[in-house]
Amino acid sequence: MNQTRKKQSTVVRLFSQLKGQRIRLTVVAVSIIIYIGLSIYNPMYSALVIDHLWQSIQAAWSEGVPFAVTWTNMGRELTQLTVQYFFTWIFYYLQSYLMANVAENLNLELRNQIAGKLNRLPLRFFDQNKAGEILSRVTSDLDKIADVLQTGLLKLLVAIGTIAGSLIVMFYYSVPLTCIFLIFMAVSVVITQIVAKKNLRCAAERQETIGELTGIVEEYYNGRNVIKAYNHEEQSLNGVTAAAEKNRAANQKADFLTNCVNPLIRLLTRLANVVIAIIAGKAMLDGTMTVGVVQAFFQYVNQTAEPLTEASFMVNSLQSALASARRTFELLDEEEEIPDPIYPAVLEQAKGSIAFEHVSFGYDPGRLLMRDISFEAKPGQKIAVVGSTGAGKTTLVNLLMRFYEVNGGRITIDGVDTAEMTRGGLRRNFGMVLQDTWLFGGTVAENIAYSKPDATREEIIAAAKAAKVDYFIRTMPHGYNTVLDNEAANLSAGQRQLLTIARVFLCDPPVIILDEATSSVDTRTEAEIGKAMKKLMKGRTSFVIAHRLSTIRDADMILFMENGNIIEQGNHRELLAKQGAYASLYYSQFE
């Protein structure tokens, strides 16, 4: 029962997405009604035409004159039948074209909703889900929904209307023959229902395995250099092979259940035709049925059996689409970031006074990582954050940028609680350089201008010079117009880092965050960048996460973190004098 309610809920929600396409759907509905009406009327009229044709042929034969078709003798009826078939095709084409349009618009609408949703999801969601699994929901799941809607749903609606109308006429022509056909149809429906239930589970499993396979492939592709460096090609191949085999098995089972029912129903239809043909032949010999009626009845049999076959196939396909729709709505229902305040505090150009006041935080609210964190950074100060890997250094910075929400206490900038500001308004006061560089497909100039899209070429060049990156840019084939791929594979790690540093120079923020910003450059380049950084940081508050303590000896305050908490704070001389954890780490680097 719970599974049925989930299915009904998914169907209702899916069709609620179509409320903006009512005009198209109305035209589709009218086209379907007219098409079904013509499909039902055409065999009835053909029965009259064939009976009339048969009578005319018999009359000509008995009179010994050649039979000829003229406008008054069968010409008018045959022309009308041809026109009816033509309009049947026209309305079939119209409904197919518009339904494809509706399905693709729905696909676009859902994709736009997901794109907006991904921008509102907290980092916690991306920490807990693989990129490949998210990608499969945006691509394969939505494509599955669109494909089934523009073919499966349309055929199912036409099938239902055609079957209902044809059965009414069949009962009118012959109750016994129709009952025989219904017996075979009932068996087909039972088989379809049994297969459909199993197919829903298999379709959901197939989409899950697609997401898993996509995630593994994406993970191994990004880590291809590490895989080769440690000779793990065979292990990674085995991992992909195992995921692909799991997906193959799920696909095989789902495809078999989707396709196996068609041949069986066609067999039942053929058996029904044989039985009906024998009884109808006797009825013609007895004179209770005419040739035209018998051929019309067989048209209705085929017209009912074929949609029944397609309906069974499409019901199974719709199960797969429902599984994809459910996964899509699960993504759209994920818990979002706390909304920005309706009347937010505005801080156009911060002075750079930062304060953590009794802040507590945990990725899982029940298991806090940080407890009662308090410190204050005055405008223009350089704050260094040090500690072992996993001590919470990057988490501290992420809280400052509101990538995560604190569980207790508050963080202020110039005395304004960051929770009272919009995220965009807060982050405009920060410039950030991460240890892992990120460059997108575009020119060098566009990548630098990512922090300030309206920057002039002169401003971009000035920022590049400040970051000591102008020289090597000018040695590239097209200088600042050189196009980089999305991984900038044609640049060294140090060069990529220099470009991201140039972004910070360009946006000229009041607060700077450097998370191991010079970890990928050589000593000489690091020294050059250090000089430029000192000039940039003058008069600005800066947070520097560093492992090499020699680079932060001039910091105004050093925060030494361990297990998510600040266990020591002070400047370099004060912490050395304490002979505590910082002093121990510092001396260990210079032994």
Automatic annotation (TrEMBL):
The keyword Transmembrane applies. CDD domains: ABC_6TM_Tm288_like, ABCC_Glucan_exporter_like. One of its GO terms (molecular function) is ABC-type oligopeptide transporter activity. It is a multi-pass membrane protein. One of its GO terms (cellular component) is plasma membrane. PANTHER family: ATP-BINDING CASSETTE SUB-FAMILY B MEMBER 10, MITOCHONDRIAL, ATP-DEPENDENT PERMEASE MDL1, MITOCHONDRIAL. This is ABC transporter ATP-binding protein/permease. The lineage of its organism: Bacteria, Bacillati, Bacillota, Clostridia, Lachnospirales.
